[in-house]
């Protein structure tokens, strides 16, 4: 059956029973693809029937189908002309793991960050009206995504505008982990109506109806015999917003995923029979685990320490904290804005809240960071995981901007761990720092393998460290590019170029003494960061300019992420494209010095402050204080 589908037009010509058979084939194909590529399995298996029914009833791509988050879009992609390319899913040059406008007309709107579909869908609906065009808009949003404030902003507007819009709530009672919050309870109450008709009366006026949407359901989201006629009737219904409540099972049709829907939310390639995922042996602990253990150690000493996550308990390691401190741990649902201001309230009440949020998801809470935290100088601690480039999730999940968007805020202290030992110390530093907001960032994945300190030591705020000394060039790293800087140092030694490598540790407050010394005592200062332009390097330049030190005698370059979004690939390949690897750093040094390299190496450079041979007398590597 699947072989007959070249476009959704073909799908619309299938008989009912052929669609039922197609569902089995589509489920098997989705399972096979993801077992080979890895990716978001559970949510994709949960929408097989919904995907078929929507494309069978609506005239896609003219009618717009929006997938919230988009992580469940693999069956949609298989049915909309991308079947042959699915083996490239989430790989370099391959199919994205989320919907993308540039990929297909069947993807009218990109996604990956949750809870955007109703807003965008309403935009398309009003767009049809204003263009005088007939068209339907269907938004599929999960119960987890529905818990975000943005979804309610959209419902509020949709309910009042009264435009034609079909919202399908894909309710599997799961986010990544089990759904939390009052909405989850409300949905479970509504779901019970199917089992207890007498309860129907009480369920009549549910939340969605009170928002002005016609509510239909709850129905079995896996039953095509129900879905197909119902969607056809909704398509012909009078214009106005409708919410269809479809009850599904995350991982439906694959027993391993149904039994452990959290474990099968995002998977590595796996063996279908056993459900065993392929895992490369870890060379070092992952940063997330190091953070969680360090926070637990601090929380044992200080009962004011609170852990907060926005529906990413496992992803941030807060689930480990929750095991030991259930009363001091809060999963607020997909609600980053609320998480930040909730933390601000806790800080104002004398607690020590640690808000553990991925860098890219934290973008959603920027005004709360500025208005509720920075402006009031409240000591909220931000544990920013997935800083820098993350790999298969691609540009939507890149932690590219937090340095710039935090270090420009008054009262903030902004740190980046250069390795997992530094991360332990930064957790202690944040725990001890009660005079204002403080953030520390660290990447997805494994550390360097450096031995971890038995106990974290609070760092002296605003102090960086020299890791290796040299004479000609200084590499000042902010974050985990430090390892690449040390490799570049070894490469440059082969050309007779002697390199100092320093770990800035802080983007705010800057270690101005270290920067001034490095700048005064080297031919070239290079800053390196896993962030977009306008972050650490810009702040160093700003400082040197303000001090009138940019006199041309010392050269300076700032290495940052490029001014374009980098498509998914392995993190290594993405950093290669970003030109932030050791060979790029070394190449940049040689490029800048090229015309003068012999003078530089032989010490016959321009008249300078007489420090030619002095190794900068600043903080030593062992100086943790
Ligand atoms: C703003 C934002 N925060 C967090 C996430 C991480 N995330 C991806 S999927 C997901 C759970 C979504 O649950 P639901 O909408 O119910 O979809 P399901 O996986 O159950 O199909 C979360 C929290 C995200 N994508 N965007
Ligand atoms: C779809 C989504 O946003 C999450 O599932 C995200 O992909 C998790 O990222 P990590 O795999 O880095 O935890
Ligand atoms: Mg769900």
How many individual helices?
26
Distance between the termini: 67 Å
Kindly state the mean pLDDT as a whole number? Answer: 94
In this entry the ligands are: thiamine diphosphate, 1-deoxy-D-xylulose-5-phosphate, magnesium ion
The proportion of residues forming helix, as a percent range, comes to: 25-40%
Please indicate the percent range of residues in DSSP E strands (runs of 2 or more). Answer: 5-15%
Sheet/helix structural class: alpha/beta
- CATH top level class name of the largest domain: Alpha Beta
Largest sheet: 7 strands, mixed
Fourth CATH level, the homologous superfamily of the largest domain:
Thiamin diphosphate (ThDP)-binding fold, Pyr/PP domains
Task: Give the arrangement of secondary structure elements.
Blueprint: H1 8-12, H2 16-37, H3 41-45, H4 48-57, E1 64-67, H5 74-82, H6 117-130, E2 137-142, H7 149-161, E3 165-171, H8 182-191, H9 200-203, H10 207-210, E4 214-220, H11 224-236, E5 241-247, H12 255-259, H13 287-301, E6 305-309, H14 313-316, H15 318-324, E7 329-331, H16 336-348, E8 352-358, H17 359-362, H18 366-374, E9 381-385, H19 402-407, E10 413-416, H20 420-432, E11 438-441, E12 465-468, E13 473-478, H21 482-493, E14 499-503, E15 506-508, H22 512-520, E16 524-532, H23 536-546, E17 555-561, H24 571-577, H25 582-593, H26 597-602
Parallel strand pairs: 1-2, 2-3, 3-5, 4-5, 6-7, 6-8, 8-9, 9-11, 10-11, 13-14, 13-16, 16-17
Antiparallel strand pairs: 10-15, 12-14
The structure holds thiamine diphosphate (TPP), 1-deoxy-D-xylulose-5-phosphate and magnesium ion (MG).
GO molecular function, one term: magnesium ion binding
Enzyme class: transferase
InterPro entries: Dxylulose-5-P_synthase (IPR005477), THDP-binding (IPR029061), Transketo_C/PFOR_II (IPR009014), Transketolase-like_Pyr-bd (IPR005475), Transketolase_BS (IPR020826), Transketolase_C (IPR033248), Transketolase_CS (IPR049557)
């Amino acid at each position: 059956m699947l072989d007959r589908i070249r476009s959704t037009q073909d799908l619309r010509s299938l008989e009912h029973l052929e669609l039922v058979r197609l569902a089995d084939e589509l489920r098997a194909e989705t399972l096979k693809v993801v077992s080979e590529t890895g990716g978001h399995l559970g949510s994709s298996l949960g929408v097989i029937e919904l995907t078929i029914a929507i494309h069978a009833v609506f005239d896609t791509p003219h009618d717009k189908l929006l997938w919230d988050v988009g992580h469940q879009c693999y069956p949609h992609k298989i049915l909309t002309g991308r079947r042959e390319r699915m083996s490239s899913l989430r790989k370099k040059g391959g199919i994205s793991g989320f919907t993308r406008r540039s990929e297909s007309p069947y993807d009218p709107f990109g996604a990956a960050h949750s809870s955007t579909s109703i807003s965008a869908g309403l935009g398309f609906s009003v767009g049809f009206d204003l263009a005088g065009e007939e068209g339907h808009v269907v938004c599929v949003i999960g119960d987890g995504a529905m818990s975000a404030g943005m979804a309610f902003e959209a419902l509020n507007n949709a309910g009042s505008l009264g435009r034609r819009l079909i919202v399908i709530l894909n309710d599997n009672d799961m986010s990544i982990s089990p759904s939390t919050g009052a909405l989850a309870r409300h949905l479970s109450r509504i779901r019970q109506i199917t089992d207890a008709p007498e309860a129907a009366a009480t369920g009549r006026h549910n939340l969605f109806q009170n928002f002005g949407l016609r509510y239909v359901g709850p129905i079995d989201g896996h039953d095509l015999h129900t879905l197909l006629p119902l969607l056809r009737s909704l398509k012909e219904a009078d214009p106005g917003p409708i919410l269809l409540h479809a009850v599904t099972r995350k991982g439906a049709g694959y027993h391993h995923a149904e039994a452990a829907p959290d474990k099968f939310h995002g998977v590595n390639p796996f063996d279908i029979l056993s459900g065993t995922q392929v895992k490369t042996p870890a060379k070092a602990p992952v940063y997330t685990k190091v953070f969680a253990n360090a926070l637990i150690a601090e929380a044992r000493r200080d009962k004011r320490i609170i852990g907060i996550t926005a529906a990413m308990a496992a992803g941030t390691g807060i689930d480990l904290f929750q095991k030991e401190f259930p009363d001091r741990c809060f999963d607020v649902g997909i609600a980053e804005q609320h998480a930040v201001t909730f933390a601000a309230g806790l800080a104002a009440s004398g607690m020590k809240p640690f808000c553990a949020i991925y860098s890219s998801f934290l973008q959603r809470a920027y005004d709360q960071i500025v208005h509720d935290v920075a402006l009031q100088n409240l000591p909220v601690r931000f544990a920013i995981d997935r800083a820098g480039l993350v790999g298969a999730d691609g540009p939507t999940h890149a932690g590219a901007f937090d340095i710039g968007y935090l270090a420009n805020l008054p009262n903030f202290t902004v740190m980046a761990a250069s390795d997992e030992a530094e991360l332990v110390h930064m957790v202690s530093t944040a725990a001890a720092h009660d005079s204002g907001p403080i953030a520390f960032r660290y990447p997805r994945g494994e550390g360097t393998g450096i031995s971890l300190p038995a106990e974290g030591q609070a760092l002296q705020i605003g102090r960086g460290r020299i890791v290796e000394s040299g004479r000609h060039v200084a590499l000042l790293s902010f974050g985990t590019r430090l390892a690449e800087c040390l490799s570049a140092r070894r490469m440059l030694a082969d050309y007779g170029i002697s390199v100092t490598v320093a770990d800035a540790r802080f983007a705010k407050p800057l270690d101005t003494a270290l920067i001034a010394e490095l700048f005064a005592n080297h031919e070239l200062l290079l800053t390196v960061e896993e962030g977009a332009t306008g972050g650490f390097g810009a702040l160093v330049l700003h400082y040197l300019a303000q001090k009138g030190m940019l006199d041309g005698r010392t050269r300076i370059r700032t290495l940052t992420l490029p001014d374009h979004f980098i498509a998914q690939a392995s993190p290594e390949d993405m950093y290669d494209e970003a030109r932030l690897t050791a060979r790029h750093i070394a190449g940049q040094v040689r490029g800048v010095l090229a015309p003068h390299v012999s003078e530089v190496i032989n010490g016959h450079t321009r008249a300078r402050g007489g420090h030619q041979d002095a190794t900068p007398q600043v903080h030593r590597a062992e100086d943790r204080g």
